[in-house]
Amino acid sequence: MTRDLTLGSQAEEFSKLVSAGKFSDSLGGQLDVEAGVDRIFEELQRAKESGRGVFVIGNGGSAAVASHVVTDFVNKGGLRASTLHDSALLSCMANDYGYENAFARILHTVAQEGDVLIAISSSGQSVNIHNAVRRMKEIGGTAVSMSGFKEDNPLRSLGDLNFWIDSDGYGFVEMGHLFLLHHVADRLASGK
Predict the structure, then answer these.
(1) Is 8 among the domain residues?
(2) What do you get for the CA distance between the two ends of the chain, in Å?
(3) What tens digit of pLDDT does each residue of 7-54 get?
(4) Considering the chain, what percentage of its residues have pLDDT values greater than 70?
C-alpha cells in the first residue's frame, strides 16, 4: 500500500497519531492523552515551584527535540531545564563508561532527588536512554519516557509516566513528541 504524501493527508495523519497516543504509568495503567499531559504538566509545575531540575535527553533527532524543548521550558516555562548532550561532556562519559552509560553517569553527578527526567527515544530501543531512566529513579526523581514504533518497546515500561505514538515513521514520532512537550511549555507559560 502506498501512503498518501500530500501535505493535507500527512497533517491529518499526524493529528490522528498524536491524539491517539497512549500514556501509561509505571504499573502499566492506561491514561487518556489529556490525563497524561496533565500529569506531565503537574510534574513540571512541581519542579518549577520547588526549584528542582528538569533534564531532557535523546539521541539524534530526539536530541534535537530535547534541545528545542529545553529552550521553551527555560524561556517560556521558567524551569531549571537542560539537556545532557554537550558534545565534550557526552563524549567524555561515553569514552570512559561506554555510550550505553553516558547519560546515566552524568545524571549520577548532576541530578538530585525530586528532579525530573524526560527521556526521548523514537524506537524505545536505546540502551543509553533506558539506563538514564533507571538511574533517575534510583536517585529518587521522576522519569517520563516518550517513544514510538513497537507498542512493546522496552522504554515504554520504564518511566513513571510513558507516552507512546503508534507509528514507525521517525518524522511523525519526533514531531509528535515535540508537539506534546511544546504544548506543555505553553501551559507552563500560562500557568494552567
Answers:
(1) no
(2) 43
(3) 889 899 989 999 999 999 988 899 999 999 999 999 999 999 999 999
(4) 99
Q: What is the pTM of this model?
A: 0.95
Give how many domains the chain has, as a whole number: 1
Please list, residue by residue across 67-104, b when 16 or more beta carbons sit within 10 angstroms of its beta carbon and e when fewer do: ebbbebbeeebebebbbbbeeeebeebbeeeebebbbb
C-alpha closest to that of 133 among 80, 57, 65: 57
Q: How many angstroms separate the CA atoms of 9 and 30, rounded?
A: 29
Residue 54: partners with Cβ closer than 8 Å, 6 or more residues away: 44, 47, 73, 79, 80, 81, 82, 115, 116, 117, 118
Q: Residue type at 10?
A: Q
Three cell numbers at 32?
487518556
Question: What CATH number is associated with residue 125?
Answer: 3.40.50.10490
Query: How many whole angstroms separate alpha carbon 161 and alpha carbon 17?
Result: 19
Range of the domain at 34: 21-190
Name the amino acid, one letter, at 19: S
Q: Over range 126-136, report the average pLDDT.
A: 98
